[in-house]
Amino acid sequence: MIxxxxxxxxxxxPPAVAPRDPMACLFVHISVANLSEIEAAFGxxxxxxxxxxxxxxxxxxxxxxxxxAHRSLGIIEVTMRLSRMPRRKRTAMLAEQIRALAxxxxxxSDKGPFFVIPAITAIPFLPGxxxxxxxxxxxxxxxxxxxxxxxxxxxxxSYRADMKSAAELLGQLVNGRAAFAHQAIAGTxxxxxxxxxxxxxxxxxxxxxxxxxxxxxxAVERLDLSFAMDARLAAIAVDRLEHDATLRLGINISARSSxxxxxxxxxxxxxxxxxxxxxxxxxxxxxxxxxxxxxFASLEEACxxxxxxxxxxxxxxxxxxxxxxxxxxxxxxxxxxIIKIDGSFVRHASDVAGAFATFLHLVRLxxxxxxxxxxxxxxxxxQADMARQAGANGLQGYHLARPILGPRLPxxxxxxxxxxxxxxxxxxSSGNDIAAERSERIGSLAEWDNHARD
Length: 454
Hints:
The chain is an alpha/beta fold. The chain has helices at about 10, 35-40, 45-60, 85-100, 130-150, 155-175, 215-220, 225-245, 270-275, 280-285, 300-310, 330-335, 345-350, 355-370, 380-390, 415-420, 430-435, 445-454; strands at about 5, 25-30, 65-70, 75-80, 105-110, 110-115, 120-125, 180-185, 195-205, 210, 250-255, 285-290, 315-320, 340, 370-375, 395, 405-410. Helix 4 crosses helix 18 (about 445-454).
């Protein structure tokens, strides 16, 4: 997981620092969040490659700031002054560029490709040796406490397989070999237009053969790389909503993605939110469907995420409800617009005597939470009738409509454009270039200042 822990006074009680104090400093602890997984799955040489990629990314971002590299520990320390912009804004943008460079392209090893996932912790302090040491201890303490959450420990072969799947999926997105297949979600009334169309990601080849990629999407989610890919695909959906005022589209996002804060204040979710503030007629035609296959990084931040987009008119759905990780308490706290009942329940209700009561309870539970209830996986007329009888508001499945493949998604020149902000140029170098530590610097603090004022 990419974990940016920018400490706030309310949570960590750091030294009081005026936001624009010309003498204020920042201690930054930077490491590879998945370094142990890389070493276990890809070997010691890959570990060295990963650290050198991160170190070069830091050097290209920081420039002449003070950098200390501890290769044996896999840790980089940076001490910098904060005279150019408010602390939190500069720190967020610094973290954003380091991540963009480190994740620009996968590195290759003899056991397969892998991504370098940075973890960044920043603590402010006033000039002075003792103050810096206190900030350093706080940063290490926080990083140590976050490390068990950084990435689920997995068996080496499974980790390699996930990395390979993620690299292939992101590569297909980069090269324009992906498309949305739009599946209509029907209302239960006669003659009503679809509630909206769910946009399902498909990947293909140059011959135009496209197929579902659920397993690759799950691999990306397990690696905790889904956050900005989700936002990128949502932004493409918004492009299409702006182009066609008759469309209503839904986009799946990981529960891990649902935060405005987790990856800094200048991530794509925040930019998308700012974009929709001035386009209420577009926002009201977008639905974000939060999937059930991962836990929220923070339920509080997820609640804020849901509320923030709902205020703009965006509808939020809980996908596959009843089968995954969402509890009734979580569903109630999130206060979403739509609850989608997993298709296994209606299939079970149609096949097993007495199972209809369970299905009816789930539909009524969703309705009691104030949500529109959609039943997924409708494959027969009998299942559609049962869903209507239970009181569902919407139906989705092959019996009603099959997904229709749309135009290819726009390709990008670099993986960083999918994983991170388009304002950053990607690092287009091989593992050998990384080891050689090319001196080219990408971006500058002056560019950050200009972006912050825009």
